[in-house]
Amino acid sequence: MGGLRNNISSTTSFTLTGFPEMKGLEHWLAALLLLLYAISFLGNILILYIIREEQSLHQPMYYFLSLLSVNDLGVSFSTLPTVLVTVCFHAPEMTFDACLAQMFFIHFFSWTESGILLSMSFDRYVAICNPLCYSTVLTDARVARIGISIIIRSLCMVFPLPFLLKRLPFCKANVVLTHSYCLHPNLIRLPCGDTTINSMYGLFIVISAFGIDSVLILLSYVLILHSVLAIASRDERLKTLNTCVSHICAVLIFYVPMVSVSMVHRFGKHAPEYVHKFMSLVYLFVPPMLNPIIYSIKTKEIHRRLHKMLLGTKF
């Protein structure tokens, strides 16, 4: 029986349905998605280039921002192949192993992004609450160790997922997926076996990674706000808080869609299918696109360098 189950799973293929609700508008949808990808790629590559070239940006805060940009590029590259072939070329077939690989990378980059946002909140906490120790606490070596630990944590969390899915039987040779990419919450709804372990592990990861990270980020900002309110000058308080605006926006545009997707999958099983698709699109497309825009607008040094690059004048 075990051999039969493994054989069924290994020969299963998936059909990615894409967006049948938008029949007749596929060209407009394809153009919109390609535009979002282009903005994401161009924006994040520009951020990386500016940080690399601008010597004054070789600081912990911008090292973490570089990690965020690399991670956002990873998210975009993870979804790009299947979105393109499904929406643009109408080739929805996908093998079981390819689907598991895409799921692995999508969730790996998602959990990595959560860790990076937590690290950035720690950077803001040290810079505002203990500025005299900033250079000794966040050394280049320590920033590198933090980055490596984030990657290792994400790998450890996502590594069991493909194996937990491979052990399950899929009772059809071809399984229909209602998205243009493979996500764990969608995949565990498809096998005809018991998915309790998969569901429990998925919930454990959400709580232990996203839950703990979000609580620690919130705690860091409570401490930051406490320190800022102790500053006598109103202008200084606003100036200090302004250094956190970009990060707060990045946290909100990541966690709000992520929590919404999780809630819809777990408690909105009877919601229309287009609601699931829309929430997943927002979760995967919006943060990589908006993060470079926010940091380009709100970070004075990046804004100045970008202005100089585009117009050839000093800002």
Task: List key phrases describing it.
315 residues; mainly alpha; Rhopdopsin 7-helix transmembrane proteins; 3-stranded mixed sheet; 13 helices; 3 strands; 76% helix; globular; disordered N terminus
Secondary-structure element sequence?
HEHHEHHHHEHHHHHH
Q: Please, what is the CATH homologous superfamily? A: Rhodopsin 7-helix transmembrane proteins
Beta-strand fraction estimate: under 5%
Counting DSSP E segments of at least 2 residues, the number of strands comes to 3
For the sheet with most strands, the description reads:
3 strands, mixed
Q: Which structural class fits the helix and strand makeup?
A: mainly alpha
| Strand line-up of the largest beta sheet | 2-1-3
Distance between the termini: 70 Å
Mean pLDDT: 83
Whole-number radius of gyration? 21 Å
Helix content: over 70%
Tally of individual helices:
13
- How would you sum up the global shape? globular
CATH T-level fold name: Rhopdopsin 7-helix transmembrane proteins
Give the number of domains.
1
Under the CATH scheme, the architecture is Up-down Bundle
CATH top level class name:
Mainly Alpha
Low-confidence stretches: 1-11
